[in-house]
Design brief:
This protein is mainly alpha-helical. It contains 3 helices and no strands. Helix 1 runs parallel beside helix 3.
Amino acid sequence: SHLCTWFITHLFAYPGYCPLSPNSQVKLPHFTAYALHCTKLHTSVTFTALVLLQQLKAHSPTGQ
């Protein structure tokens, strides 16, 4: 989960907290670990999803 969190924060320049929800108690590393635990996806599926996110970001860097 730490590697996934690092990848997401660096790919999207995420500040580590939700700027739209200052009262949020859940930080990205905890959310990532919880989501990975609940979905019980194979590791290859998780990393494939990260690769696809990276390709999407390269194709549409502004998010449009």
